[in-house]
Model the fold of this input.
Amino acid sequence: MEIWLEEIWAEISASGWEFLTVAKETFSVIKRHKTQIISLLIILLVPLYLSLSTWEQGRINSQIDLALVLFVLVVALCCDALLYRLAILDSFQIEPYEWWDLLKLGGRLLLCYIKLAIIWLPTLLLTVIPLIGELLFFLVSGWFIGRFLLLFPTLAIGYDLSLKWSWNQTKNYQGLMFLIALFIPVTSAIFQLLIDSFVKTSNLAAFCQLTNIFICGSIQSILISRAYMKIRQEQQLLIQESGSGTSVR
Done:
C-alpha cells in the first residue's frame, strides 16, 4: 500500500512539473508575441461586443443577431488556428492569398470540436451517481478530453491525424494533459468569481464573462501547442537514441 501511494505521488509530482515547464514556455510565447496575441483578441472582442445583447439574452431575435453570432464563431475559430500556429511555428505564416485556407482550417477545427463533443457525451451519465457523480464527471471529463487535445495543434499546422493517434501520443503524458484540460474550467471559474464580486452592470458582466472564456481559451490553446512540442521533441529524442528512422509528427 505504501509503495502504491509513493508511485501515485511520484506520478502526480512528475505531471505537475511537466505542467509547470509547459506553462513557463506558454508565458514565454505570450511575452514574445504579445502584440500579435493582443491584436487577435481585439479582432475577436469587437464583433463579440457588437453581438453582446444576443449573448446576454441567450436567444437570437433577428437575422442580424444570427449573422453576428456566426461571425463571432468564425472569427474565434480562425483566431484559435492562428494561436496554434503562432505557438508552434513562431509566426502565423498566413499570406494574403491563404486567408481562404484559414477559413477552411477554422471549419476543420469546428468539426474536430464537434467530433470530440460527441464521443465525450457518455461521460454525462456519471452525473447520476449519488454524492460523487459531479466530481467524477469533472475528473473523468478532464482526463478523457485531455487525451485528444493534441489533434487541434496538429490540425492547425496541416496534419490531419486521428483520435486514435492523439490517444496513443498522450499515453505517457496523461497527467500533463489532464491538467491542461482543466485549465479553462478552473481559471475561468476563478475569474468569474472576481467578475461577480466587482462587476454589477449586467451588460458589462456579460461582456467580461465572454472575454474571460476567450482569454482563458487562448492561453489554453498555447498550452496545448507547447505540450505538443514537448511530446514531439521527447519522442524524437527517443527515436534518435533507438536508431529508428520513424518520424514524429
The chain has one domain: 2-240. The longest helix spans residues 202-242. The two ends are 39 Å apart (CA to CA).
